[in-house]
Automatic annotation (TrEMBL):
Name used for this protein in its record: ABC transporter ATP-binding protein
Biological processes per GO annotation: response to antibiotic
Record keyword ATP-binding present: yes
Classification of source organism: Bacteria, Bacillati, Actinomycetota, Actinomycetes, Micrococcales
PROSITE patterns (alphabetical): ABC_TRANSPORTER_1, ABC_TRANSPORTER_2
Gene Ontology annotations for the cellular component aspect, listed alphabetically: plasma membrane
Native source organism of the sequence: Glutamicibacter uratoxydans (Arthrobacter uratoxydans)
Length: 305
């Protein structure tokens, strides 16, 4: 089985993490099994408290599992991190406010013995223009970009990002992902935790949905959307008789919403129903929509609980 592991960037086996305080016991991660292949871009998606950060912390060797095992590039996570083959952009933590952006990047580059990467990384992460600014004067989004730059310095095989765009506005977020797209080429494995369904949808080929410490769905991001079968068709119908008849078209049809003669139907076979609406029931102004990842997520989380 060793040959299999060799191609995996991250392998989580029977992973559990329980936090015990004097009054409570929180099972933050409850039996996660996950294999992430080299070169994959994976979103860990889930609401607050799903267990994403706890999982990421264990992948980085920042905390130990209560039970189960973490392997990163076939190594113990702490070894993988200290060798510079894995790095991370975390939500919290340590930038020194009094140093300038360039000084910060230089110090960390020196630590990794990669001083030659300073200029290229500054350029790529859009920091060259603010090189002399003190970190404490940088906006939240700029500080995230500094952390991103620091993570890129060792030229890691695996990059882990815990809500990397927190604190960024829409423009900054877009620029960040454009840079990430460039970084994703060349076989780098990227794993990012996010609340934003849109970020998973736009960027990750694979999405792992977490809820209540468990993986509730895992698959190609596009497949996940298809998991919730069916479509919504909205149409305007000429009269009440047509509405009644349309509902009888097949047993999967139901009315999700209604505003006067404008009806939102849910149905399994949207092509056949659309044809019937137009030709048999005199409907007009049809709109057909597939469920969003958000719908899929709400549905799956409901099913899991
Ligand atoms: N050190 C800790 N002590 C006690 N409970 C903790 C600790 N860290 C996390 N938890 C709890 O574990 C659960 C999972 O938290 P975690 O931060 O992993 O979720 P998350 O999916 O990353 O959420 P968010 O998106 O809000 O960051 C939560 O109920 C949280 O309160």
């Amino acid at each position: 089985m060793e040959t299999l592991n060799r191609t995996e960037a991250v392998t989580l086996t029977g992973l559990h993490k329980t936090f015990t305080t004097s009054r409570t016991k929180v099972e933050a991660v409850r039996g996660v099994e996950l294999g992430i292949e080299t070169g994959q871009i994976v979103a860990l998606l889930g609401p607050n408290g799903a267990g994403k950060t706890t999982t990421v912390d264990m992948i980085l060797g920042l905390s130990q599992p209560t039970s189960g095992k973490v392997e990163v590039l076939g190594l113990d996570p702490r070894k993988a991190v200290s060798s510079g083959r894995v790095s991370a952009v975390m939500q919290t933590g340590g930038l020194l406010r009094d140093m300038t952006v360039l000084e910060t990047v230089r110090v960390i580059a020196a630590m990794h013995q990669r001083p030659e990467r300073v200029e290229a990384v500054m350029e790529r992460t859009g920091l060259s223009g603010i090189a002399k600014r003190r970190v404490g004067k940088c906006s939240g989004g700029e500080q995230q970009r500094i952390k991103f730059a620091l993570a890129l310095l060792p030229d890691p095989d695996v990059l882990i990002l815990d809500e990397p765009t927190a604190g960024m506005d829409v423009m900054a977020r877009r620029e960040f992902w454009a840079t990430m797209h460039e970084e994703a080429t060349g076989g780098r494995t990227i794993i990012f935790a996010t609340h934003y369904l849109e970020e998973a949808q736009n960027f990750a080929e694979r999405t792992v949905l977490m809820s209540g410490g468990r993986v509730v769905a895992d698959g190609a991001t596009e497949e996940l959307r298809k998991l919730i079968s069916g479509r919504t068709i909205s149409a305007t119908l000429p009269n009440e008789q047509a509405v009644v008849q349309a509902q009888r078209f097949d047993p999967s049809i139901s009315i999700a919403e209604r505003n006067g003669q404008r009806i939102w139907f849910k149905c399994a076979d949207s092509d056949a129903f659309a044809r019937a609406l137009l030709s048999d029931y005199g409907a007009w102004d049809l709109e057909i929509s597939a469920p969003s990842l958000e719908d899929a997520f709400i549905q799956l989380t409901k099913d899991a609980s």
